[in-house]
């Protein structure tokens, strides 16, 4: 065959999607089949993902897509479901923004020093890393009966196929994988009392994950045997695989959505002490590459303000933000103080006054403060990634939802003094689809995947403009 239709299940922190991609020689065309809200639920026991509603969304989407040649699943990282010995889910997976890990990192470092953790795993310090979640849950009743842990995309694949595995790009975000060999770091897990037999065997993008179960086929009303193909199941890894660059480009990427993931693709991890202190992460990318990046809070800041205001008119807010004075006040958009949900406009205003800047008051001013701060955090991460890795960047690729946010793209170009190429918006779904296409022999290597994206998706280029000194001055206001 020289063409196929692949279904990408792409679950994000605020919505899930089922997207099909038709892949033919040199082209890929996407169709969004189904989009559904991902609304976490706050229970007595804490903040949880409504995983059953997500799975229903997945099945609804696949059913609406009709029979495809293969299915692949990606989602946000670090979170997981626990299964009992019968393979049954024990409870709703805990949300990474839950507060149960608040004091855990310091506790862990008493057993395994932070320096050693980083030298081995290369993973940033974030309170939500799976490692900290597992330690936080250690004395719970569920931990005592759990016999298997499946990361979110692997859990969905398991329900679809009955087969269990641990996909390696996502596994790196557990902070339990050796950054250089991409195998489990037994000497990190053991002293912390984490049993690695909890994890299903590792598998890599392109491996077959299984075949849709007869009962699933029946629910979908499909007749054929359809494979589920392992993709780069960490959404950011799928998105990076689809960044539309040429073989010779020196690029940085910003994968946007709830987060901005800002960094470089490297062939080996940077495990220096300077890198640890700058809190850069070395996550596993496709085909043994390293995603050397920093987590910036991203449009989460705006989403939370909008939830607080009960305002869902993004276009109106961005228009207002474009019309107010820029760089009036900025915040540190990499600060984990903004991780938890709730009262975001207030927290942002307080962060401004704490650094001696005027508090933004109107919705337009607050939105502008967020976008200026994101642009500044993007620039800082790209500058530091270059310094720490010794690599040079001459273009920034912005993929994901914010690629359609013209103001943020332009501000990012202005702040960094580099051109920004924006698009595709559905980078994660494209990476998901094209890795499946590669497994079917329809596409070659990753450079070819990227070329195919560049050739078939609309891209928009922003040239840097304005006064960079103003950005330098703003940066100084928040650099302690
Ligand atoms: C983006 C993302 C980030 C990860 C965060 C939490 O969707 O996957 O890469 O740090 O969510 O899982």
TrEMBL record:
Keywords: ATP-binding, Disulfide bond, Kinase, Nucleotide-binding, Rhamnose metabolism, Transferase
Database matches in SUPFAM superfamilies: Actin-like ATPase domain (SSF53067)
GO molecular function ontology, one term from the record: ATP binding
Listed GO CC annotations: cytosol
Bilayer-spanning residue ranges: none
Record-linked InterPro entries: ATPase_NBD, FGGY_C, FGGY_N, Rhamnulokinase
Carbohydrate kinase FGGY C-terminal domain residues: 252-439
Occurrences of domain Carbohydrate kinase FGGY N-terminal (ranges): 67-240
Domain of life according to the entry: Bacteria
Keyword Nucleotide-binding attached: yes
KW Disulfide bond (keyword) present: yes
Single Gene Ontology BP annotation: glycerol metabolic process
Family label: Belongs to the FGGY kinase family.
Protein name (Swiss-Prot/TrEMBL): Rhamnulokinase
Species the sequence originates in: Streptomyces arboris
């Amino acid at each position: 065959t020289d063409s196929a239709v692949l279904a990408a299940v792409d679950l994000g922190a605020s919505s899930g999607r089922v997207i099909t991609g038709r892949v033919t020689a040199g082209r890929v065309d996407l169709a969004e089949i189904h989009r559904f809200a991902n609304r976490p639920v706050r229970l007595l026991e804490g903040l949880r993902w409504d995983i059953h509603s997500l799975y229903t969304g997945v099945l609804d989407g696949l059913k609406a897509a009709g029979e495809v040649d293969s299915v692949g699943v990606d989602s946000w990282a670090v979170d997981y479901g626990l299964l009992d010995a019968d393979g049954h889910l024990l409870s709703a997976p805990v949300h990474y923004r839950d507060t149960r890990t608040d004091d855990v990192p310091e506790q862990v470092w008493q057993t395994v020093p932070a320096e050693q953790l980083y030298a081995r795993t290369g993973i940033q310090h974030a309170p939500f890393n799976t490692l900290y979640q597992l330690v936080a849950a250690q004395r719970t009743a569920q931990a005592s009966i759990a016999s298997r842990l499946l990361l979110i995309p692997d859990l969905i694949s398991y329900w679809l196929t009955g087969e269990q595995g641990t996909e390696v790009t996502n596994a790196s975000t557990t902070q339990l994988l050796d950054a250089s060999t991409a195998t489990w770091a037994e000497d990190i897990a053991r002293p912390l009392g984490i049993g690695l037999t909890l994890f299903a065997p590792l598998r890599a993008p392109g491996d077959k994950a299984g075949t849709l179960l007869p009962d699933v086929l029946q629910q979908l009303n499909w007749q054929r045997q359809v494979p589920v193909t392992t993709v780069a199941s960490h959404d950011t890894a799928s998105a990076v695989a689809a960044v539309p660059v040429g073989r010779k480009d020196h690029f940085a990427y910003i994968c946007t959505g709830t987060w901005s993931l800002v960094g470089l693709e490297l062939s080996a991890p940077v495990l220096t002490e300077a890198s640890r202190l700058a809190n850069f992460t070395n996550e596993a990318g496709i085909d043994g590459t390293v995603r050397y990046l920093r987590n910036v809070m991203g449009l989460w800041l705006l989403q939370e303000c909008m939830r607080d205001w009960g305002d869902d008119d993004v276009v109106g807010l961005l228009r207002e933000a474009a019309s107010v004075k820029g760089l009036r006040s900025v915040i540190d958009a990499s600060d984990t103080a903004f991780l938890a949900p709730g009262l975001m406009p207030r927290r942002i205003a307080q962060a401004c006054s704490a650094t001696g800047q005027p508090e933004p008051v109107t919705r337009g001013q607050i939105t502008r403060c967020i976008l200026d701060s994101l642009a500044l955090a993007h620039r800082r991460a790209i500058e530091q990634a270059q310094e720490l890795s010794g690599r040079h960047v001459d273009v920034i690729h912005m993929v994901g939802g914010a690629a359609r946010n013209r103001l943020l793209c332009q501000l990012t170009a202005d702040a960094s003094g580099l051109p920004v190429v924006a698009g595709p918006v559905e980078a994660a779904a494209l990476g998901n689809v094209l890795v499946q296409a590669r497994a079917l022999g329809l596409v070659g290597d990753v450079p070819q995947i990227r070329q195919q994206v560049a050739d078939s998706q609309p891209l928009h280029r922003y040239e840097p403009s304005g006064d960079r000194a103003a950005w330098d001055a703003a940066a100084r206001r928040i650099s302690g």
